[in-house]
Amino acid sequence: MAVASADQVIDVSVDQLDERRRRRRALLRIGFPVAAVVVMIAAILSIALYAERANRSGVLGLSTDLLNALDSRVALAVSSYLDPATRTVAVARDVIKGGSIADRLPVLETVGASLLRQIPQIANLSFADEDGNYLLVRRGRSGGTDLKVIDNAPGPRRVTWIHWNAAGDEIGREDDPTDAFDPRTRPWYIGAAATENVFWTGVYIFFTDKQPGLTASARYRAPDGRLQVIGADIALQDLSRFLSSLDIRKSGRAIIVDGSGVVIATPGGSDVMRKDAAGTLTPARVDELGDPALTAAYDRFRVEGHGRRVIEVQGRRYVTAVTPLPTAGRDWYVLTVVPEEEFVGFVTSNNRHALLLSMGIILIACLLAALLVRQGLRADRSARLLLDRQGAIVRQSSAFATLAAEADLFDPMHNEPPRALTETLAGVTGARRASVWRFADGGRTLCCEDSFERESAGHTDGLRLYREELPQFFATLAKGEEIDVAEAANDRRTRELERVVMWPLGSRALFAVPVRREERVVGAVWLEDAPHKTEARDFVRAVANMVALRMAEGAAAPTPTERAVAAPVPAEPEAKRSYTAELASRGINPATIDGDIYPSVAVMVVHFVDPVALSVRPASGQNTISDQIACTLQQVARKQDIPYLKIVGQDVVGAAGFSAPDGGGALLIADVALAIRDHCLALFEDSDQRQEFRIGIDCGPAIGGEIGSDPRVFNLWGEAVRTASRMALTGLPGAVQATEAAYDRLRHDFVFRPRGAFYLPGVGEARTFILAGRR
Known about the structure:
The protein is α+β, with helices and mostly antiparallel strands and 775 residues long. The chain contains 15 helices and 31 strands. Strands 1, 2, 3, 4, 5, 6, 7, 8 and 9 form a nine-stranded antiparallel beta sheet that branches. Strand 18 (445-453) and strand 19 form a beta hairpin. Helix 1 runs antiparallel to helix 2 (105-118) and helix 6 packs antiparallel against helix 7. The longest helix is centred in the first third of the chain and has 81 residues, at 16-96. The protein is elongated, with a radius of gyration of 55 Å.
């Protein structure tokens, strides 16, 4: 046989089969539309993903010819830009062949100026021989030509600048004795002298212009056997400007590098030269440009050689191409890098647009599914409400039948508590507690005719509530207003009632319907924690109207099962509380007690349950609750002349009546307890804290005496102190609990409410009471 788990809680008031059926129906109402939308979203996403991959693959396949054409066009454009320098060197060599530089000076000036005009990428033309003689032809101002002539041998070295205008007329001539230029030390001369072919230098700084560039040079020998070299300079800024003008999609870029990774030219041009440790400008390498895509493309080129490939750098795909430049005569390459989205970006864009359009369809489907779910849930809710109402009607019909069978409950002369009425109210509304109350003493008192707790199936009657302790609740009922609050502790009208009546049971919600008779409120019917009060609201009102018949003028008061405290209590034999007798029973001679024995001392103990709450600052004060309570205690002690008042930890002990037992000490202690109670309630309410304090009062014997060394301190202990402390520890939060001994001395001047029985050592069971206020 299966045994249920010990910690499993089953609500027997709920039909588990009906609950499972309701959940299954709700799941079907919600699950099918949601599943359909999910399937639709998954299908659309799958189609979009497949379409993107297929289109991307197709576009990349179709772009092969485009990329090859782009590579060829870039290589051809760069070769076309560099090739004129090679032809210029060949033309100049043919012109000067057969003579020296000095013999061909006018011809070289004319040919050089013509070549510079026809070939814009040529910056300078240089002619040098093995003796160090040198001729430089470059563009001058206003379309003219500048010549630099170095006569190095025979005779003394001489450097002359000759300036020609656009018409070919000489317009100036000056010598420059500071010029130490020697062409034989320059890379273009040294490289050409070592090869029969056209030689291309790397990037270096021009001596005359102080600008970076590169030179194409070639050698030849004059008829006399002397070595001569011709060079054509291309300025780096011109080559960089050309590279930047190439149309390589939107964000593609191309650079020229050699086989060792040294950069020859870039579109920007400014990042080609770098200073080394000695401060000398040297060509940069590819990995020094700060471009991860170019660096990765060059690394793949070093491993796999030239060609086209797709690489991925930092999560982005690039199409790269490395094309050799045979025109340059060296191992130069054009390195091209283009982001892949430049080719397939429109595919992603089109798929994104299609996905956005699909999202519109999904939103419409979601809206339709939500409407379907809402309509289904609303139908289920309507059906459930209809069933609940039918059930409520059945319960109320049965309840009316029960009440009709107990018609004498509403007879004004019926003295028995209306137990069938409260049980019927609790059964129809599902309330935790249902009770019927009657106003008495001109509206100053609410008397409970009967209260039924559904969980324990117990009845209680005779409880009294006083206007002095529940002023706002009484005022609301007297106006004939219904009270319907979900949290009684948070409503000012019911906060005190929740603390006094509802808190011990654990109830939170309250529904109170006033009972009217001839436009006058004579009582109330109230329900605590009633889940079905909404559909039974009219039934409760009808019951309240029927209860009004019971509360007719002149009706006999019900016979309470508990003694009404407001009326004088018949004299009963009072248990003798003799401290001397207690000492004797313990074998102690009272004469040996070092202290005074006070036979009837009134003692008050205030116990604060939560010491942390005492450190809270209320909204209306700058000091903590503990500080304000201490100040209040000092003020009350001075005003009431309390002879004994001490604060010990989270307890406060006060006592009076050390002289003859005339009852004045008890009155004094009761007034002090009420003052402290009201002040603490206000402080805790202001700080939004629960009333975590309890007050106990007792009247009885105690011992007092001075203890300790100088200064000696008066201390009080004994039965009265111990019993008052028990009253504080077991009382209701925010209430003053008194023993029967204190009640006997105070009942004529104060209003009490019975609490129950309490066991006192040496006395036995004694009644306890809640001190409500002064009469």
